[in-house]
Design goal:
Layout: E1 48-52, E2 55-62, E3 90-96, H1 110-128, E4 135-142, E5 154-160, H2 165-181, H3 185-196, E6 200-204, E7 207-210, E8 221-225, H4 237-257, E9 263-268, E10 283-288, H5 295-300, H6 309-318
Antiparallel strand pairs: 1-2, 2-3, 3-5, 4-5, 4-9, 6-7, 7-8, 8-10, 9-10
The structure holds zinc ion (ZN) (3 copies).
């Protein structure tokens, strides 16, 4: 009815959980952690390993409890029905971001996080070769309360046969802007934000960090390339080190202003497929978990942010980024 797509994945209910109580702050013990070195057999056979043998630096494995599977489920179609149930075809992978169970990306040198981003890029490129897939998204939940079920640093990659609602809305908005002006919506926004300066957080290495005008959460921050670039996958290794440096900088600023909150980040890049990128401008959205999403937000899709974006940006801008550990 609403055009909403939901993935029903009852198999995921059996997945291990370091946070059995919502919001619990247990970290999980390395001995029982499927992502720790020595426990490699606890994950499905790996797709990719960076580093030598037991001294690996990054691993990519299929999600043991996938929301989607390459062979999908059986589609159910009834022409008379209001709803349809297509097969849940797709890819669901986990990137294990280093051997350190207690690791925090805010503490990683840009070269280390840059290597992780290089793995994101590699897998995105691999998924782009699958003609069934329309969109690929990388996201990361870190810390209890962010949605993470395991404490060990990891990100997830999902390849989807459709463009999901949020990127689809961005793509549509950008398309309208480009049709009206001939220019990129994000490039124009970056130009305006630089001129005003009010919502700017940091600028370095060809990257801009800013609090978006319609921030949904306090301290929500976006990281974008200052020059027009449609696909994250087109970044060079040097670009990725600069992106890593900026993400680390933003996380350390967040640590300073919001006492190291759990957070999620999501990478929005252009849809897969030739010609699909036109007008898009990739970006990371970083969402610290400092408020709760509740009935009003779920019921309306409208977020109530108790903090003006300009105030959030000023506090982040003037924060001395704290070095973790
Ligand atoms: Zn671990
Ligand atoms: Zn642009
Ligand atoms: Zn976005």
């Amino acid at each position: 009815v609403s055009g909403r797509v939901v993935i029903i994945a009852a198999d995921r209910a059996g997945r291990p959980n370091d946070f059995p109580v919502p919001g619990a702050l247990t970290g999980g013990r390395p001995a029982e952690c499927p992502f720790c070195p020595g426990n490699e057999a606890a994950t499905p056979p790996e797709i990719l390993r960076v580093g030598d043998g037991a001294r690996w630096r990054v691993r990519v494995v299929p999600n043991r409890y996938p929301a989607l599977a390459p062979d999908g489920g059986r589609p159910v179609s009834d022409p008379a029905a209001v709803t349809t149930r297509p097969a849940a075809v797709g890819v669901h992978e986990v990137t294990i971001e280093g051997p350190d169970h207690q690791g925090h990306p805010a503490a990683w040198p840009p070269e280390v996080l840059g290597e992780v981003l290089g793995v994101y890029r590699l897998r995105l490129r691999a998924l782009a070769a699958d003609p069934r897939l329309a969109y690929a998204i990388v996201f990361k939940n870190h810390g209890a309360g962010s949605g993470a079920t395991l404490a060990h640093p990891h990100a997830q990659l999902m390849g989807l046969t459709f463009v999901p609602e949020l990127p689809a809305r961005e793509i549509e908005g950008a398309r309208r802007h480009t049709a009206a002006t001939g220019r990129c919506l994000w490039c124009d926004a970056i130009r305006d934000e630089r001129a005003a300066g009010e919502r700017l957080v940091a600028e370095a290495g060809g990257l801009v960090a800013l609090v978006p005008l319609a921030a949904r959460f306090p301290f929500e921050t976006w990281v974008l390339p200052a020059r027009h670039q449609e696909r994250f996958e087109d970044s060079s290794p040097d670009d990725l080190v600069a992106v890593a440096a900026m993400l680390g900088d933003v996380l350390r600023r967040l640590g300073a202003v919001a006492s190291d909150p759990p957070f999620s980040w999501v990478l929005h890049t252009a849809p897969l497929g030739p010609g699909a990128a036109v007008g898009f401008h990739w970006h990371f959205e970083i969402w610290p978990v400092v408020t709760r999403v509740a009935g009003f937000e779920w019921g309306t899709g409208v977020f109530v942010n108790p903090m003006r974006p300009e105030d959030a940006a000023r506090r982040l801008r003037t924060a001395a980024p704290t070095r973790r550990r």
